[in-house]
Amino acid sequence: MKTLPGKKNSSHGAVRGADFDRRSSQAEGRFGRIFRNLPAAEWPEEALRQLAGNGHDEGGMASDPELAEGTNLPFAPSEENQSTRLHDDEENSGIDAGYTYLGQFIDHDLTFDPASSLQKRNDVDALVDFRTPRFDLDCLYGRGPDDQPYMYEGNGRKFQLGRELLEGPNGKAIAHDLPRHRWVDPDGTVHNRALIGDKRNDENVIVSQLHSVFLQFHNRLADDNSRIGFSEIQRLVRWHYQYVVLHDFLYKVARRDIIESVLPHLASGRSIFEDKPRLLFYKPKNEAFMPIEFSAAAYRFGHSMVRPIYRLNTQLSGGNHPDDTQPNERERGIDGRQFIFAGLKQRGLNGFDEFPKEWGIDWNLFFDLTGNKDSRIGKDRTQPAYKIDTSLVNPLAFLAEFSKIDMSTPAPPLTDIAQLQPKPLDGKEIPNLALRNLLRGMAMGLPSGQDVARAMGLEALPDHVLKIGKATNADDYKKLDSMDDLARKFPSFVGKAPLWYYVLAESQHDWFEKGGEEDTPVQLGRVGSRIIVETFVGLMLNDGHSLLRQAPAWYPTIGKRKDFDMPDFVNYALGN
Q: Is the dihedral of CA 532, 262, 211, 17 positive or negative?
């Protein structure tokens, strides 16, 4: 086990951005590189645009929209008359939809980079991470009740909660919104901004309500432990969260063999001091840093897990009319469900604002809270995440934050898919998430996926098995275009795939090698798993306040105890 290294004095020639005090009130850290000696990979911007796709046409990582046959209207598989809980050949049987947004919440806890550019090369060593590189829930607690009292109740011991959210029209209260500040601009524009530690946890309705679950978990711990103060409650919340990260989330998304090679005590059952952690690549010389290979590439795997449409609770039934649905809408499978992002505010789970109070989330539809998900196969099912592959659903090519959204209430009737695909705010904005990720990776000077694989002592995957598109079944996988095809037009792709894309293609290839059936679970491959597991574990080992450092044998006394997982976390928070 490592002890926290002492902080060196700044001197001429030191790494820029390295002399911030990570325990200062600014709560800053720094970015860095795991593979500092690998060359940066570069491609023409047009090559990355071709790989990304545009969300309108077939080809590229941004999927074209799924339309009902003979129409220009959106389609989703029906929730009715199903024989299994998998309704869609893009669904991942191994990961429930809630873990997509737990992953997003974790990302917001660890990284925040508002300063880097997509369009020019960035000096990674000079970039500041405006989140601490620790699993300390600074996205939840902000700077604490003394500095941000508006987030807390009067005595500073518990969080404020927002309005009650209902299970559909006239339904029972099942959730809480975030606390919000409301104001009106001179032009009449109304704003309802969340009062939380990180604004990004309000960027869609799902992560917003998940943040509220964390608020409620803290508050229940405070109620159940009335004799302890804020700091001790905060420590317990962090430990429960870190336990979920290590024992549940990681095992869902990463390879077990890599997790247990890095933390061998998890497999042996012995003490962490007998079977010590084995990090091969993430080895900070001084204080912990946020690896750019993680934040700008590997950890963006979660974007491929996003579904295009979600059911929030079983009592919603609306379509063009919020409380009613037409036969055509039922036939197209969109009744009572919302698109993850949409050009019509009332049809998408767009964030940074108040949303209908009927949109309370039944978390059993996102995590298996009742432990019986295989028997729930209709609209009450636990929705699966999408497979980890080289495809992003169509709404992610039109991110609401960078687009012109129709804010009309009620929303106009949905008569054409174009209404869900808004125009960019201006010519400079890039709303296509796949393209944003690819440009950011190049701007950060990331090495290619093949170079990282070889640096890990692995055999790099050949271009012809690096596919571009959806992982549905083995036959369709074989027909997908590959990096080999794209390299004929853009030779810079020969043996040099962008690291983010490579991590996804590696997962997709592993799925194919395991049979490539519709219900074959998909996890990260060796490169993706290694970067993510070593970063998670390395950050915890370099944080003297983490669970792994302060109490590595600790486990929760609630829920399933040593098998405590995210469903237990949610159940406790909601008082189930």
A: negative
What does the pLDDT look like over 547-568, one tens digit per residue?
999 999 999 999 999 999 999 9
Left if phi > 0, otherwise alpha if psi is -120 to 50, otherwise beta: which for 413? Answer: beta
CA distances from 558 to 225, 561, 565 (A): 13, 5, 10
Angle, alpha carbons 219-221-225 (nearest 5°):
120
How far, in whole angstroms, is CA 94 from its chain's centroid? 16
Structure confidence at residue 132 (pLDDT): 77
Helix (H) or strand (E) holding 95: strand 91-96
- CB of 423 within 8 A of CB of 404? yes
Q: What does the pLDDT look like over 396-407, one tens digit per residue?
A: 999 988 899 988
Q: Rounded to 5 degrees, what are φ and ψ at 483?
A: -60, -30
208 in Cβ contact with 214 (< 8 Å): no
Q: Name the amino acid, one letter, at 192.
A: N
CA-to-CA distance for 370 and 382, rounded, in angstroms? 10
Cβ-contact 309, 97 below 8 angstroms: no
Partners of 384 in the β-ladder: 96
Q: Are 317 and 375 in contact (CB under 8 A)?
A: no
Residue 54 token pair = 């545009």
From CA 571, how far away is CA 554, in angstroms rounded? 20
Q: What are the structure tokens assigned to 541, written together?
A: 């080992």
The answer to whether the pTM exceeds 0.90 is yes
Task: Work out whether strand 29-32 and strand 290-291 pair parallel, antiparallel, or are unpaired.
Answer: parallel
DSSP-assigned beta bridge partners for residue 535: none
Task: Judge whether 409 and 59 are in contact, CB under 8 Å.
Answer: no
